[in-house]
Write a structure and sequence with these properties.
Strand order of the largest sheet: 7-6-8-9-10-11
Largest sheet: 6 strands, mixed
Helix content: 25-40%
Order of helices and strands: EHEHEHEEHEHEHEHEEHEH
Shape: globular
Number of strands: 11
Strand content: 15-25%
Distance between the termini: 62 Å
Length: 308
């Protein structure tokens, strides 16, 4: 029996995305919200490719339309997003953010998949033959840095001789630029490419090399190329926020930990036909240690640097 104070399902949810909905990070949020809609918990609408200068206006429009929950990313619009949220205390906001939650209604989240990133690093470090791994990222912000640093730690934990080439393309969505950065790394000896952005796996495929996936599993699009991937699952985060809104118990909180492996918010996959058997066994043993709380992956938000 639902409490008398609970909202009727479906509640109204809107999302605001600054990039195409196909982009890795955003696609995970969209997938989780579509699943909630399919269950009948929510009705869902979204706006994509919203410019930072337009973000505040779109937030207001959704709040004025009576949305129960607004989801989005506030990384480049922190002050504006928080200002709008405070003006609509009856609307719940769940925003990707580098900072903390705020009264009365502003909760934050992020894709804390440093744990599976470490595991993909273990696989890459054991698989590389040239001992050079190329890494292409979007922006050198904490949310990206911690994943890349965890990957590097995982790689060096099994192969102290591995070196890294690190480049940021200063864009969230520019596959041609990411591809060119990856080609430059191949020219310097990289035989495995860390694909934090779209475009890198295309370079690996063209050169007949291996790539490490991030956030989503693209192995089906690049057969024989994707060695291992750190996956993000937004469902644990989204579902808890939706449950809180329905129960009218939503409070500003940090939902980031729901991306941890122990909550099912992150996972690790490996193509066992491409990796050494003992490397797969070691990574899976470490995965279990993480889930059991017996191993903690370092969170290092500093900008990763090339080591050669």
């Amino acid at each position: 029996m639902q409490p008398a104070a609970a909202k009727d399902k479906p509640i109204k949810v809107a999302a605001i995305y600054t990039v195409p909905v196909e982009q890795q990070w955003v696609s995970r949020i969209n997938k989780a919200l579509e699943a909630a809609q399919a269950r009948g918990d929510i009705t869902y609408t979204f706006s994509e490719n919203v410019a930072n200068t337009d973000y505040e206006r779109v937030m207001r429009e959704y709040a004025e339309q009576g949305m129960d929950l607004v989801v989005g990313e506030a990384f480049a619009v922190e002050r504006a997003a928080r200002k709008v949220a405070a003006e609509y205390p009856d609307t719940a906001f769940l925003m990707g953010s580098s900072f903390g939650p705020a009264q009365p209604n502003f909760s934050v989240f992020d894709n804390w998949i440093h744990e599976p990133s470490y595991l993909t690093g273990m696989i890459a470090g054991a698989t590389t033959k040239s001992n050079v791994i190329g890494m292409v990222g979007g922006y050198a912000i904490p949310e990206v840095n911690r994943l890349m640093n965890a990957f590097m730690e995982g790689a060096t934990s099994v192969n102290p001789d591995v070196k890294f080439l690190v480049t940021f393309i200063n864009s969230w969505y520019d596959p041609p630029k990411a591809k060119e950065a990856a080609f430059a790394m191949v020219d310097k000896g990289a035989d495995i490419l860390y694909a934090e952005r779209f475009g890198v796996s295309d370079a690996a495929k063209e050169k007949g090399l291996l790539a490490i996936g991030n956030v989503i599993d693209t192995a089906g699009d690049y057969p024989g190329t994707i060695l291992s991937s750190a996956l993000w699952h937004m469902e644990p985060t989204v579902d808890r926020a939706i449950e809180a809104v329905i129960a009218e118990s939503f409070e500003p909180a940090d939902y980031g930990p729901y991306s941890f492996m122990s909550y099912g918010g992150g996972s690790f996959v490996v193509d066992e036909s491409l990796a050494p058997e003992d490397a797969v066994a070691s990574a899976k043993a470490k995965e279990q240690e993480i889930k059991d709380g017996l191993f903690r992956v370092n969170v290092n938000d500093s900008e990763p640097k090339s080591t050669m």
